[in-house]
Amino acid sequence: MLSIAVFASGNGSNLQALIDASRCGRLKARIPVVISNNSDSFALTRAQKAGITTYHISQKKYPDYINYISQLLTVLKKHDITLIVLAGYMKLLPREIVDTYYGRVINIHPALLPKYGGPGMYGRNIHQSVLAAGEKYSGATVHIVDSQFDHGPILIQRRLLVNPNDTPDTLAARVLEIEHEILPQAVELFIK
Ligand code: GRF
Fold first, then answer.
1. Is 0.85 surpassed by the pTM of this model?
2. Where do the structural domains in the chain lie, given as residue ranges?
């Protein structure tokens, strides 16, 4: 079975969607490792509850860049990782990792890329910008990662209608529901 490393920085609800899909057999993959740049990330707690090995690896923790990269590569190799999933990972994955796993790193983004992606487009900013622009649709995208933020070939995208009374928070919540559906689907697609 294919082994996935999930990188997450915050709440980890997308990680949870993957754990649940893997547990019920809908996703034919295992998640042996979760990596976070944030030691307080609830994603780490979710992973530990599911019996997954967790690592806190950040540039702050490993100020020497070569050592930082080597920590990441060692963990990925140790767990025989085939696919890296960035699920709410708020850092740019180092180029060395993207190059080593080229075509095998995917990211979920809460907007219809290529719009509303790139530096500064995270969290509430995205949904605020979508509403400010008067967009009719928003949604979520899973794409293969290259060396730029929120960039690379799109695997799956699903859209929803923006409601006239949507706030950034209501829109974010509805987009997040879509994310939880399409992320496991994207991994399945990758496997196929
Ligand atoms: C999601 O909207 C994800 O796409 C974005 O940050 C949010 C994180 O959600 N990058 P979670 O940590 O998976 O709950």
1. yes
2. 2-191
* Ligand 1 atom with least separation from CA of 9: 12
Is residue 109 part of the annotated active site? The answer reads: yes
Q: Are strands 2-7 and 83-86 parallel, antiparallel or unpaired?
A: parallel
| 8 A C-beta contact, residue 174 and residue 158 | no
Q: Is 183 in the pocket of ligand 1 (CB under 6 A)?
A: no
The answer on pLDDT for 187 being more than 80 is: yes
Share of the chain above pLDDT 90, in %: 92
Whether residue 131 is predicted with pLDDT greater than 90 in this model: the reply is: yes
CATH of the domain spanning 2-191:
3.40.50.170
Which of 179, 180, 181, 182 for a ligand 1 pocket mutation test, highest count of atoms within 8 Å of Cβ?
Answer: 179
Query: For the residues 128-143, what does the mean pLDDT come to?
Result: 98
**Dihedral sign, Cα of residue 23, residue 27, residue 28, residue 29:** negative
Cis peptide before 114 (omega within 30 of 0): yes
Distance 71 CA to ligand 1 centre (A): 24
Residue identified by tokens 């649940």 is 20
